Amino acid sequence: MISLMGNLFLVAATLSVCAQVIIAFRQSTRLETVQKFVFVETTFIFFAFGVLLAAFVINDFSITFIAKNSSATLPLYYRLAAAWGGHEGSLLLWVVVLAVWGSIIASSKQHIPPQFHKRVLGILGMLLLGFLIILVFTSNPFVRIELPIFEGRDLNPLLQDAGMTIHPPILYFGYIGMAVPFAYAIAALMSHGAHRLWVRWVRPWVAIAWSALTLGISTGAFWAYYELGWGGWWFWDPVENASLIPWLICTALLHSLSVSDRNDRANRFSLFLGISGFLLSLMGTFIVRSGIIASVHAFSSDSRRSFLILIFFSITSLASLIFLFLRGPFFSHQRPMRLSTLNAALLLNGIMLLSATLCLILGTLYPLIFDLLGLGNISVGPPYFESVFTPIMIVIAFLIGVGVSLSETTNTEKNNFNVGLLLMPSAISVGVGIAIWKAPTFMASAGLSAGIWIIFTTASSIFRRTRMALTKNISFSSFFTNQPVTYWGMVFAHMGIAVLFISITINKSNETSVDIPLSIGKHFKIDDYIISLKNIDLIDGVNFRSERATISLYNGNNEEIVLHPERRQYLMRKIMLNESAIHRGLLSDIYISLGSQNEYGEWITRIQFKPLMNWLWAGCLLMVAGGIIAACGRLSRSVIRILPQQDGNQ
Predict the structure, then answer these.
(1) Which of 59, 288, 374, 442 is the most exposed place for a label (fewest CB within 10 A)?
(2) Nearest-5° angle of CA 431, CA 437, CA 438?
(3) What is the pTM of this model?
(4) Tell me, what DSSP letter sits at residue 144?
């Protein structure tokens, strides 16, 4: 019965989307009618997803997807998260998030011409229809199982974590949010007279998608840090790259849109980034679900499913890029733009971000293409990415500081680069670089200097604005409230990037790791810590058995730190996993992983000291806060701005 209900809701949603797409491109259709169809299809999709959640709650193992990804002993909150723990459910979550984005755009109060608004909704509907077809015909989560499994096969133990309930929905909201600039870009190409207006309409949504994608990637990195037991947070996994690539494009798009809002010559670049961001998201979807890679992130190895996704990706890419090639030349006016302006600095930043993206794409896809052509197996690992990607990001950091400084020039100074604005930040950054010249590598020195450079150029910007306000007898409270909201968004985001640069550089350069054999009553001295194993307890969990250690660390002040790393044996899947224990500090984390016993009965334990890890997460949160602040500022300006209510065909 539940399976039938879920299928009926999916079919009803598919029919509703078909109707929406048909009427959205008709000249005579009212916008309100299209909006109603968007809300109806979203409701059907939510009902289908609710049915799937209910089936997980009641352990309906007659449904294949539930039997393979849940069990009778799985705790309720993991059963709910298991709804997107496999290919079919995660694809349904994709459809849910895309429908939510469609409803958000449909209910937007922006002053957008009705014809343009309808086209945006129609394009989003076409994308939603494509995924619904894939979902219904090849990835249906409500298919009934042929041979009943009475207890289920359990959820992958790596996914039995609180991160599973948070990371995928947030990441999807940002990842799939790239469909919105795609829809706006295609709608703009279909319309006349929308050369610069589409930029103003789409900017807040790009900032929201960027913030969600940043938070999603950050939560994934945090999850990997404490769950995988290796002590790392980024491994240049192909699927990790598949989320980072759209993030880089989205970051470039934010800068390009800022230029396009002032100068039409960047319009084609913005259109290209808006379209390619979503196409790269589709490429990542294919990588995850094709089975051509082995990864903890991979969902599916069914060639029939991946082939349909590949067809959808190919058709969407070919049609949109050809359309951009044909219509793009009409979107640029020949207005001069000297390279010394703020526009040029922002545009160059976007180009460098695009270069970093191409490097990631090359490193990610080259081994896959090499293997598919039957040329053998090769691997492209961290050495390639760190040696190619890192220098580009350091150049981007320099451009960030230049852009911030140029934003302080007056209207009459826009075409004259004021070197004086950069003298103090440059001197401080170079001084820091010289002071740490004996860092392990040149890149470590350059990375730390880049972070300091961003901090001081941003701080100089705030200082100059404050000094200008004081000369006009403006109070501090009035100064902060009178600054544009988007300015503070920029400050938070850039400060977050700076903190991220500093934390990653110091962490990679100064982390230490040691493996020691621990036994009860035996002590080890590492740096300023005396480490001892107090006890090993055997614990029976709901669906696992655990060997739980109690490890004490005494520092130089004779303060005791007690940590409890574990080794868990999951009963259904017969998988052994390490659960690390972490003592978090302002300046350093102590990370302990419990290994197996050696021939002498000693527990091989890995202890790692990781400096500034909490700074890394703080930098990510600052970036997210900056994106949200900027989005709120853009959205409020977009809502209250009275734009010409022109027809999209004019």
Answers:
(1) 374
(2) 145
(3) 0.91
(4) B
Distance CA 16, CA 104 (A): 17
What phi and psi, each to the nearest 5 degrees, are found at residue 184? -65, -40
Q: 244 burial class (0-12, 13-18, 19+ CB within 10 angstroms)? A: buried
Q: How far is CA 64 from CA 52, 70, 390, 571, in A?
A: 12, 10, 44, 20
- In three-state secondary structure terms, 178 is coil
108: left (phi over 0), alpha (psi -120 to 50) or beta: beta
**646 token code pair:** 């022109």
Q: Are 450 and 398 in contact (CB under 8 A)?
A: yes
HEC-encoded secondary structure of 382-418: HHHHHHHHHHHHHHHHHHHHHHHHHCCCCHHHCCCCC
Token pair of 35, please? 């909006």
Q: d(Cα 226, Cα 603) in Å, to the nearest integer?
A: 20
- Residues 254/210, Cβ–Cβ less than 8 Å: yes
End-to-end CA distance of the chain: 52
- The tens digit of pLDDT for each residue in 199-221 reads 888 999 999 999 999 999 999 99
How much is the pLDDT for 303? 62
Contact 606, 500 (CB under 8 A): no
d(C-alpha 306, C-alpha 290), whole Å: 5
d(CA 264, CA 45): 39
Give CA torsion, residues 420, 425, 431, 433, to 10 deg. Answer: -120
Q: Which of 486, 78, 534 is nearest to 257 (CA)?
A: 486
- DSSP-derived letter for residue 329 is G
Q: How far is CA 419 from the centre of its chain?
A: 35
Give the type of residue at 260.
S
Averaged over 390-408, what is the pLDDT? 84
- CA–CA dist 271, 288 (Å, integer): 26
Neighbours of 311 (CB within 10 A): 12
What does the DSSP 8-state code read for residue 74?
Answer: S
Nearest by Cα to 566 from 590, 537, 609, 589: 537
Q: In this predicted model, which residue has the larger pLDDT, 539 or 266?
A: 539
Torsion, Cα of 319, 320, 321, 326 (10° steps): 90
531 half-sphere exposure, CB direction, 13 A CA radius = 23
- List CB contacts of 26: < 8 A, sequence separation 6 or more: none
Residue pair 253/277 in contact (Cβ under 8 Å)? The answer is yes
Distance, CA of 17 to CA of 136 (rounded, Å) = 13
H or E element that contains 526: strand 523-526
pLDDT digits (tens, 9 = 90+) for 309-322: 889 999 999 999 99
Beta strands in 153-309 (DSSP E): none
For the chain, the 3-state helix, strand and coil shares in percent, each to the nearest 5, are 65, 10, 25
What Rg do the C-alpha atoms of the chain give, in angstroms? Answer: 27
- Which of 442 and 251 is assigned the larger pLDDT? 251
